[in-house]
Design goal:
Elements (H helix, E strand, L loop, with lengths): L6 H89 L7 E10 L2 E10 L3 E11 L1 H17 L7 E11 L1 H9 L3 E6 L2 E4 L11
Parallel strand pairs: 3-4, 4-5
Antiparallel strand pairs: 1-2, 2-3, 5-6
Length: 210
């Protein structure tokens, strides 16, 4: 026959249950604290990685900007070199073609209703003017843009509105299709030979006038 349950037995059960509750609560708190600490470490590492990434992006952006500035400066200096190579010979080259120009200027700017235009080299006399576009690497697209500039020239430079205007393109490196396209559009083509430059158009070339 089983023993009757006493008040002490009931208190013992409560004490055992309370002890189990405390142990479970302690285990739960330890597990939560471990999770919290792990999460904080992971978040801190992610922030560090993000900071490093942001710093790397900022550094890379700065490097790209510096490189672009250096390349732009180099391109500008190379363009100036080409201009200075052509300028001393420009008047003589066109005089040999029967265009008796004598006054030469670098980087002449004008203004029309569409905005400003710049001519790299301008060679002129009292009735004729030659506008020269100079590129270190001359491409067909450069020629196309220059043709648009020539269409605007007399409005941008009204003092030349009654002059006979010729166009010329020049480059150190000239794409293969440029020769044919420039001649087709009636432009003079200037290119380097040795330590000087020449007009490369043939004797049967007839320049376009604007």
């Amino acid at each position: 026959m089983s023993q009757p349950i006493t008040i002490d037995d009931i208190f013992a059960l409560f004490r055992e249950s309370e002890q189990q509750r405390k142990e479970y609560q302690q285990i739960s708190q330890q597990a939560f604290e471990h999770y919290r600490q792990t999460a904080e470490r992971e978040m801190a590492e992610l922030r560090k990685q993000s900071d490093r990434t942001d710093q790397q992006i900022a550094q890379l952006t700065t490097q790209v900007a510096q490189t672009n500035k250096q390349v732009g400066g180099l391109t500008s200096r190379w363009g100036e070199f080409v201009e200075n190579l052509i300028k001393p010979a420009a008047a003589r080259l066109f005089q040999e073609k029967g265009i008796d120009v004598h006054l030469t200027a670098l980087r002449v700017t004008g203004q029309d209703e569409q905005g400003s235009i710049e001519i790299d080299i301008l060679v002129e006399n009292t009735t004729e003017v030659v506008a020269i576009e100079v590129k270190s690497h001359l491409e067909v697209r450069d020629v196309k843009r220059f043709l648009q500039t020539l269409e605007r020239f007399k409005k941008a430079f009204p003092k030349h509105k009654n002059d006979k205007l010729y166009g010329a393109v020049a480059g150190i490196k000239i794409d293969e299709r440029v020769n044919e396209y420039a001649i087709q559009e009636g432009l003079f083509l200037i290119q380097p030979v040795g330590d000087s430059v020449i007009i490369a158009n043939g004797h049967d070339f007839h320049p376009r006038t604007w």
